[in-house]
């Protein structure tokens, strides 16, 4: 697996297995085992996914040594404060059955992010977290966090897909030393993405699926990619992307698909902020 180096020297597998919306415990546990069997070494979960226990069981039953795996989880909004991070992080560790986390993220850019960040910095110094970062932060929010604290975020996990390409934001994050990580690289199937004529035609040229073309497009930008599937054959397919390269012409065609807006919702929408603030998960 290809690795990329974060701004603190920690290496992270460039391809990760996402577990969002895998809520059935047995399915989540099995999916993690199958993903690791397929070759994934980077597993991504979150407090709000409500599957940390199942993910932890899958990790434990995989038979792969802990040091060979890179595990990410995220702090949900209700726990985004100094004390909230310290207490909820310990609960996440217990649910996952781990004694350290490779990457801990603030899941959403709301509530007391500065207090939360100070707690995360302390946990990193203590060796309980190898890397710390954010998710869904605008570039200015990530830079603000960096400038008024000790540690610059190592990662910003954001929506990146052919319909929301975020080219300027990706460049800006990299200029700050913050690694972009793509969630929803396949836009969760929106706009019939798996049958998009441009992506299908590019894939046919290389004998690859649309998912493989999208993954390769992101990898060639130096972006960490999170892909999710509960089907072992798809897991393997999503990893099989290192034997071809896109041409400049391919990339120019993909660029025409950019709509320049989220395929899901705006993080600047007051109603969405209020909804997230009200979503108490007791985690």
Automatic annotation (TrEMBL):
The active site is at 49 (proton donor). Substrate binds at residue 107. The record marks 74 as: Lowers pKa of active site Tyr. Residues 15-258 form the NADP-dependent oxidoreductase domain. One of its GO terms (molecular function) is oxidoreductase activity, acting on the CH-OH group of donors, NAD or NADP as acceptor. InterPro entries: AKR (IPR020471), Aldo/ket_reductase_CS (IPR018170), NAD(P)_OxRdtase_dom_sf (IPR036812), NADP_OxRdtase_dom (IPR023210). The keyword Oxidoreductase applies. Keywords: NADP, Oxidoreductase. It comes from the Bacteria. Belongs to the aldo/keto reductase family. This is 2,5-diketo-D-gluconic acid reductase.
């Amino acid at each position: 697996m290809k690795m990329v180096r974060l701004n603190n020297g920690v290496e992270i597998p460039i391809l990760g297995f996402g577990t969002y919306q895998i809520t059935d415990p047995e399915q989540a546990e099995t999916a993690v085992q199958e993903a690791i069997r397929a070759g994934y070494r980077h597993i991504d979960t979150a407090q709000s996914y409500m599957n940390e226990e199942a993910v932890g069981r899958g990790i434990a039953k995989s038979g792969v040594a802990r040091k060979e795996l890179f595990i990410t989880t995220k702090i949900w909004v209700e726990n985004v404060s100094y004390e909230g991070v310290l207490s909820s992080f310990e609960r996440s560790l217990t649910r996952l059955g781990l004694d350290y986390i490779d990457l801990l993220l603030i899941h959403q850019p709301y509530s007391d992010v500065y207090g939360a960040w100070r707690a995360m910095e302390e946990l990193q110094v203590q060796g309980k977290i190898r890397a710390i970062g954010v998710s869904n932060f605008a570039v200015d929010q990530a830079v603000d966090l960096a400038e008024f604290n000790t540690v610059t975020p190592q990662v910003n996990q954001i929506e990146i897909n052919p319909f929301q390409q975020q080219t300027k934001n990706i460049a800006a994050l990299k200029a700050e030393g913050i690694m972009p990580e793509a969630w929803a690289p396949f836009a969760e199937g929106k706009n019939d993405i798996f049958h998009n004529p441009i992506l299908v035609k590019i894939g046919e040229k290389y004998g690859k699926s649309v998912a493989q073309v999208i993954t390769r497009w992101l990898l060639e930008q130096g972006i960490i990619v999170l892909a999710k599937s509960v089907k072992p054959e798809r897991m393997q397919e999503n990893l099989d992307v290192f034997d071809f390269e896109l041409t400049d012409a391919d990339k120019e065609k993909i660029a025409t698909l950019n709509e320049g807006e989220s395929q899901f919702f705006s993080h600047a929408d007051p109603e969405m902020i209020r909804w997230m603030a009200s979503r108490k998960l007791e985690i």
